[in-house]
């Protein structure tokens, strides 16, 4: 069975500051890992994915995430927050070659302070 | 850029009624999925569909749910007899292969 834990239901940063959203996973097999963003009243947009290639993954809108097997983590970062980054962010895991459905974390609401 | 579309955006129905939620996946994708998100909770997997059959389903996907690909473009989720607790946002997703899934904007289902 797989699971995802996102630390912090709400994260607040100042515009221009570093964004760090935490995600830890558990999986019995090598995982595929994803970050999705959900803007108000919209669907889920894929930010980036890890599928067992490079451990540092670059995504859209300046976001990146690093897969750390020893820490079972896949934290999302962005060097400089922008007001338009305010949204809900979801980390998700699926098992490589295994189950089809994604298992999502509870989400982190990112607030950007002017 | 191709995207997943869903209709309607909002559906209101009475308890016990049947509803059909519709999705048009990205045209060259082969895997199709339904998820739901109850207000304030996390996104939950319901079912996946490949090669015209269900490939995986969660424990949420009980006998009141069914999925169908009636033609070459649509993918539907039917809820046979809706309950109050079925009120949620329902998302359709598709993928070219197992891995990155692309989501539609969702259908908000309200059961009264």
Give the tags:
heterodimer, A: 114 residues, mainly beta, six-stranded mixed β-sheet, four-stranded antiparallel β-sheet, B: 112 residues, seven-stranded mixed β-sheet, 11 strands
Describe, in plain words, how this protein is organized in 3D.
The complex is a heterodimer of chains A (114) and B (112). The radius of gyration of chain A is 13 Å and the shape is globular. With 114 residues, chain A is mainly β. In chain A, the strands form three sheets. In chain A, strands 2, 5, 6, 10, 11 and 12 form a six-stranded mixed beta sheet that branches. In chain A, strands 3-9-8-7 form a four-stranded antiparallel beta sheet, with no helix packed on it. Chain A has a two-stranded antiparallel sheet with strand order 1-4. In chain A, strand 5 and strand 6 form a beta hairpin. Helix content of chain A is 0%, strand content 53%. With 112 residues, chain B is mainly beta. In chain B, 0% of the residues lie in helices and 51% in strands. Chain B is built from no helices and eleven strands. Chain B has strands spanning 5-7, 10-13, 19-24, 31-37, 43-50, 53-57, 65-68, 75-79, 88-95, 102-103, 107-111. In chain B, the strands form two sheets. In chain B, strands 2, 4, 5, 6, 9, 10 and 11 form a seven-stranded mixed beta sheet that branches. Chain B has a four-stranded antiparallel beta sheet with strand order 1-3-8-7, with no helix packed on it. The radius of gyration of chain B is 13 Å and the shape is globular. The N and C termini of chain B lie far apart (37 Å). Chain A binds chain B through residues 32, 34, 36, 42-46, 49, 51, 90, 92, 94, 97, 99-107, and chain B through 4, 6, 31, 33, 35, 41-48, 50, 55-56, 58, 91, 93, 98-106.
Ordered list of secondary-structure elements with their pairings:
The complex is a heterodimer of chains A (114) and B (112).
Chain A: E1 3-5, E2 10-14, E3 19-21, E4 24-26, E5 31-38, E6 44-50, E7 56-58, E8 64-68, E9 73-78, E10 87-95, E11 103-104, E12 108-113
Parallel strand pairs in A: 2-12
Antiparallel strand pairs in A: 1-4, 3-9, 5-6, 5-10, 7-8, 8-9, 10-11, 10-12
Chain B: E1 5-7, E2 10-13, E3 19-24, E4 31-37, E5 43-50, E6 53-57, E7 65-68, E8 75-79, E9 88-95, E10 102-103, E11 107-111
Parallel strand pairs in B: 2-11
Antiparallel strand pairs in B: 1-3, 3-8, 4-5, 4-9, 5-6, 7-8, 9-10, 9-11
